[in-house]
Amino acid sequence: MVLNDDQRRVIKALYLEMYFLLFSYAQNMLSDRSLAEEAVQDTFRIACAKADKLLCSPNPKGWLLNTLKYVIKNKVRSWAYHGNSLELDENIIPGNCDVLDIDFMYSDLTNSEDYKLIKKIALDKYSMLEAAKEIGISVEACKKRVQRAKKKLKKALKKMV
């Protein structure tokens, strides 16, 4: 696992930016500080081993979060296999995303204004009128921006699959 200078620089920047958030997520899921640290370190070990996949991803932060989720699931499975009990909050993993997950996973797929607008409408349940008033545009302009943002997001998600 030999990284070139660019790969090393990008992964180091992601590490510095994401470590605390990933650690907080892992600690919340595992309820154990040392296991959480180990899970995050394993995540970045995998990121180094699969640097090409990470860096080619349209959303490296989401890639790291998904990798962390798999690392956590594997830790729980391993503990169960060895007769230890380690419980996992099934409301969070694997499928249901909380807002932190969504911010990690999708914020860099569209520009931030479009992302915030989609988030207001989809997650915060704003009406088009409420969203338009909040950002100071007409309802028709809001609808058009949402339509364009959804199209961009859909295209980006297809590339991820």
Question: Which helices and strands, and how do they pair?
Answer:
Blueprint: H1 5-30, H2 33-49, H3 51-56, H4 60-81, H5 99-106, H6 112-122, H7 128-135, H8 139-160
Name the features.
161 residues, mainly alpha, Rna Polymerase Sigma Factor, Chain: A, Arc Repressor Mutant, subunit A, 2 domains, 8 helices, 75% helix, elongated
How would you characterize the overall build of this protein?
With 161 residues, this protein is mainly α. It starts with a helix and ends with a helix. It has helices at 5-30, 33-49, 51-56, 60-81, 99-106, 112-122, 128-135, 139-160. The protein contains 8 helices and no strands. The protein folds into 2 domains: 1-92, Rna Polymerase Sigma Factor, Chain: A; 109-161, Arc Repressor Mutant, subunit A (Orthogonal Bundle), CATH 1.10.10. Keywords: DNA-binding, Sigma factor, Transcription, Transcription regulation. One of its GO terms (molecular function) is sigma factor activity. This is RNA polymerase sigma-70 region 2 domain-containing protein. InterPro entries: RNA_pol_sigma-70-like, RNA_pol_sigma70_r2, RNA_pol_sigma_r2, RNA_pol_sigma_r3/r4-like, WH-like_DNA-bd_sf.
Can you tell me the CATH topology of the largest domain? Rna Polymerase Sigma Factor, Chain: A
The proportion of strand residues reads under 5%
Task: Indicate the structural class.
Answer: mainly alpha
CATH C-level class of the largest domain: Mainly Alpha
Q: Which descriptor suits the 3D outline?
A: elongated
Radius of gyration: 18 Å
In oligomeric terms, what are we looking at? single chain
Number of DSSP helices? Answer: 8
The largest pleated sheet is described as: none
Helix-strand string = HHHHHHHH
Question: Which stretches of 5+ consecutive residues score pLDDT under 50?
Answer: 89-99
Helicity range: over 70%
The total strand number stands at 0
Return the average pLDDT rounded to an integer.
Answer: 79
GO molecular function: DNA binding; sigma factor activity
Family: Belongs to the sigma-70 factor family. ECF subfamily.
Keywords: DNA-binding, Sigma factor, Transcription, Transcription regulation
Protein name: RNA polymerase sigma-70 region 2 domain-containing protein
